[in-house]
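Re: the request from the purification team.
They wanted to know what the chain is likely to look like in 3D before they choose a buffer screen. I agreed to run a prediction and write the result into the notebook, where they can find it.
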Amino acid sequence: MSEITRVYAGRLAGMIVRGPETDVIGRVRDVVVNIRPSGHTSRALGLVVEMTNKRRIFLPMLRVANIDPHEIMLVSGSVSLRAYKPRTGELAIIADVIGSKVHIDDPELEKLHSKPVEVADIELERTRTRDWALSAVAVLGERGGFGRRPDLYIVPWKHVHGITAAGVGMSDAAAELIAEFEDMRPADVASALYELPETQRVSVASEFDDERLADVLQEMSEDRQAELLETLDIERAADVLEEMDPDDAADLLSELDNEKADVLLELMDPEESAPVRRLMSFNPDTVGALMTPEPLVLTPQTTVAEALALARNPDLPTSLSSMAFVCRPPTATPTGKYLGSVHLQRLLREPPSTLVSGILDPDLPPLYADDSQETAARYFATYNLVCGPVIDDDNHLLGAVAVDDLIDHLLPDDWRDTGIRPDGDPRKEA
């Protein structure tokens, strides 16, 4: 059966959602979308799925493997059980859009210009990037005589007006900004936030989900991170810290007073707080304080094919995916005996069935947790790397240090506030 690449949101309602092992997750109840200003692609963010226990959860559209005429298959059967809650800047098609009035300027339908028409459904189209974009709207014309159904017209999305991030026929500055930020890099969102008045900045930031806010916070200077974190209630602040990379969370907590930092660490999940506590135990000027405890760690029996599959993980930063570290179990840091490392380029040159234990770089020395930042800089310059292993005196891998984290600490403390090119440089950021 050919894969469906166009579908109306209304047709999805009630469809069964299954995991890859055919287990039923629940049924679709709505489609959540991000409405962008004219000229930008508006897209579906995910599905509201009602589980068998009546709990409604959110499933991102990128988790959808394919849509069949009667059911939806997911890439993985693992789902977040957190209850779905509407967020500012997002709309639910069935709950918020269908049945509302809009106006159109489709040159093919001049007779409907300047007349309010009712939204009957919205078409979604799968793009080359696997996103689902809003492509067309089914609208109802004027009702005919008694007993006659109104005519149905299909209008390209670009010719439909009156639907904004705040809702149909509504305008809300915070909602519009959040929708605009959706496709921006976290670093650009961080810069844009600090161009807003303080009250608006706090309002917009509070509407981000925990993961998005964590990504944005990591692109700010520690002072601004602490300032924004202070505006959140204590439990929300702990949730956001859990979503941050451990090294960034440790840096942020070090900016707070000891009492509040201790409270936040206690509120965090123990599995999330443990690596943060370890990082905070190192001298801030050493490699130990810079490293991440979550690099790409493999066992000696891992094949090249398996290693490359793990390196493709989109949640793994580019710098950390450039190097795999091979250790005896356990593979969670601190690991068993560290055996060596293998660069991504070497993995690409070897047969898929080759074991990584046979292609380790024998000449690459490690870094030690108590090495200085200058030592790390000389290390990267000497070996032309962007990532390096950090071990302890007993040859256990503690983590990896990435060159971007090193540069972050070598630059002035406020470099994120001044941008790529400080004021006075005639060339401006794009």
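For the purification team: The first strand starts at residue 6 and ends at 8.
Please add any questions underneath this entry.
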